[in-house]
Amino acid sequence: MMETMDFRGRHIVVSGGAGALGTAVVGMLIEAGAVCHVPCFHEAEAQHFRLRDHKNVKVTIVGSLADEANVASFYQNIAPLWASIHIAGGFAAAPLRDTGVAVLRQQLDMNFVSCALCCRAAVTAMAGAGGRIVNVAARPALEWRSGAGMVAYTASKAAVAALTVALAEEVAKDGILVNAVAPSIMDTQANRQAMPKADYAPWPKVDEVAATIVFLASPDNRVSRGGIVPVYGKS
After folding, report:
1. Exposure string for 81-109, b = 16+ CB within 10 A, e = fewer
2. Within a 10 A sphere around the Cβ of 111, how many other Cβ atoms?
3. For residue 189, with 0-12 CB atoms within 10 Å meaning exposed, 13-18 middle and 19 or more buried, which class applies?
4. 232 and 141 Cβ atoms separated by less than 8 Å
5. Beta pairing, strands 176-183 & 81-86
6. Which of 9, 81, 122, 190 holds its CA 20 to 30 A away from the CA of 214?
7. In what order do the strands lie in the sheet with 131-136?
8. Between the CA of residue 153 and those of 71, 78, 140, 159, 181, what are the distances in Å?
């Protein structure tokens, strides 16, 4: 599937592009000829991004993507925009009784507000030209009971899923196809360190999840919209 995709000359935003999943997505996109624009929170994040010096990678220090002005300023300098992929987010695990309003707002800002602002900026940038938007929800966003012990995170990712479906309907006639993926726990170094006794074998691999994202963001995706695609692997 990947061999047929052609992103030559297409400009794509990848928020969270310096992370494990984001790096895999950016790597696939630049291999297919895309120009990737990666917003980073601070310089330290940019310095840890191993693809930052590639000629088709443009890294910008943006600050918080939950800040309306930051997001608007970043997107207004990217034209023409073909796709916007929103991987940036954060995780917090705690029972609700131990979750204060600061954590609730942090999870909403990091996962939902940042995604919503990037979606809005992307829709504005794509006006009249069409394009693709891909968000990242999570398995608990679809299977709410599995979110016990991480209620704030689950609710914020469920909001991302609802946003995706509603926005897909809103902008379909503009030629903008909006979808999301919902990963289960992915096989990353950080997750292995956090759960050293877990069985890693069933976890979806980062490259596998990235391949699904890249297809949804591609011109080869001509009809899929409003999907929250489970990417669970064998888990």
Report:
1. bbbbbbbbbeebeeeeeebeeeebebbbb
2. 31
3. exposed
4. no
5. unpaired
6. 190
7. 57-61, 35-40, 11-15, 81-86, 131-136, 176-183, 228-231
8. 22, 31, 9, 10, 16
Residue with the two structure tokens 């608007």: 72
- Sign of the torsion angle spanned by Cα atoms 147, 148, 153, 156: positive
**123 with 171: CB under 8 angstroms?**
yes
Amino acid identity of residue 71, one-letter, is V
Asked whether the beta carbons of 163 and 109 are under 8 A apart, the reply is: no
- How far is it, in rounded angstroms, from Cα 100 to Cα 4? 48
Query: What does DSSP assign to residue 204?
Result: P
- 124, 171 in Cβ contact below 8 A? no
Amino acid at 153: Y
Q: Phi then psi for 76, rounded to 5 degrees?
A: -70, -15
Residues 198, 46: Cα–Cα separation, whole Å: 31
- 2-227, CATH topology level: Rossmann fold (3.40.50)
Q: What would the pLDDT profile of 89-115 be if each residue is shown by its tens digit?
A: 999 999 999 999 999 999 999 999 999
